[in-house]
Amino acid sequence: MKILVLNAGSSSQKSCLYRIEETTLPKHPLKPIWTGHIDWTVAEKEGILTVKANDIKQEIALDVVNKSEAIPIMLNTLIAGKTKVIEQLSEINVVGHRVVHGGIKYTDATKITPEVKAKIAELIPLAPNHNPAHIEGIEAIEKVLGNVLQVAMFDTAFHQTIALENAAYPLPFEWLEKGIRRYGFHGISHEYCAKRAAEILNRPLSSLKIINCHLGNGCSLTAIKDGKSVDTTMGFTPLEGLMMGTRSGSIDPAILIYLMREYGLTADELNTLLNKESGLKGVSGISADVRAILEGMKAHNFRAQLAFDMYIHRLRSQIGSMLAVLGGLDALIFTAGVGENAVLVREKACEGWDFLGLKLDKIKNESFPVDEDIATKDSSVRILVIHTEEDWAIAQQCWQLCN
Question: Residue 322 phi/psi, 5° resolution?
């Protein structure tokens, strides 16, 4: 079976092709036979397509008016040139899409129908930077591959098990009835990492209390008990919660009223401020990238140090919040770009938890761990670094729907 996965972001399109020849689903993630990545941030009026296959890396400049026109160009590299891995696109059996927002309706991988596509479009106001890209991807596949089976996996789905008292905001009840509630995001990653943790620890997932720290440009924590999400830091939108690369995370909402009244900021300007100009980037004045922040700290840059200290303080504070919800902890997981690679972030995040019996092995922490336990032998809480595999999780669900 050949499974194509599309993982669209606000300024990128990541894709990969898996070939599963086994009659049973492999226990561990397979490597895709082809990957394609379109980045729209490199140049002002064009995208850069990077394709990897057959031990070859190829870069192609995309000069297109509509971003959806880039997807057929990307797919053509599957059947032509040095990155060719299949004879024709009709060999693709199923296409899986990561969809950021599915509201409260979808709790599982779902076959995409006109009704499902309409719902994704209906939720665009709740995910304006992502859901339009998902619609573009779905429609591009329809044009190129016709009636091939398409499947949606929703980032919000894993969090539908959160109790209403944790999901509702303390606003007049009528707003809850209109859909103003906490949805949570990064669900595909959180669920995958929880299952992988159970495998690494050789324990039933149903026996574990887990806090999963998904730390990338976007950041969120999820408290997982008995394999289910019981609380998470992101809310109505991915803006709530932790301090992130360019997002502020949670702030006093009265600040927005003040900025509107005293400085005349519009809704669009506030959106840009909170989502694009805040977080590590806004405080440091350097970058949203933790690596650049760490370099700034080495140069004794005050704002870089402040940004890092704020980031760690909020991370530790929210870990404490998740801990209170769980009533105990078996495993603390670090995943995604920062979580998997930033040694100092993990070290600082693990400080001060002696009362839990949580002890980090600094040598293991500094040894580039992947899917490993980096706690000391006598630590009461296991500390795991797990390489998140969102694309493989989507491919797994596609395979199961087809078998």
Answer: -65, -35
Provide φ and ψ at 177, rounded to 5°: -65, -25
Local structure of residue 28 (DSSP, 8 states): S
Q: Residue 62 pairs with which residues in a beta bridge? A: 47
Alpha-carbon gap, residue 102 to 131, rounded angstroms = 9
List, in order of start, the domains of the chain with CATH numbers.
2-154 (3.30.420.40), 203-385 (3.30.420.40)
Residue type at 54?
Answer: N
Angle at 314 between CA 309 and CA 317, to 5 degrees: 125
Q: Which residues contact 373 (CB under 8 A, 6 or more apart)?
A: 200, 201, 364, 382, 383, 384
Which amino acid, residue 210?
Answer: I
Q: Supply the Cα-derived Rg of the chain in whole angstroms.
A: 21
Closest CA to 231 of 182, 268, 196: 182
Beta bridge partners of 223: 211, 231
Amino acid identity for residue 72 in this structure: P
Return the structure tokens found at 250. Answer: 């949670």
The residue-averaged pLDDT of 192-212 equals 97
**Packed helices 390-402 and 187-201: angle between N→C axes, nearest 10 degrees:** 90
Q: Which range in 104-108, 109-113, 144-148, 190-194 is most confidently predicted, on average pLDDT?
A: 190-194
Task: Enumerate the active-site residues.
Answer: 155
Q: What percent of the chain has pLDDT over 90?
A: 82
Q: Give DSSP secondary structure letters for 188-238.
A: HHHHHHHHHHHHHHTS-GGG-EEEEEEESSSEEEEEEETTEEEEES--SST
Tokens of 307: 């940004």
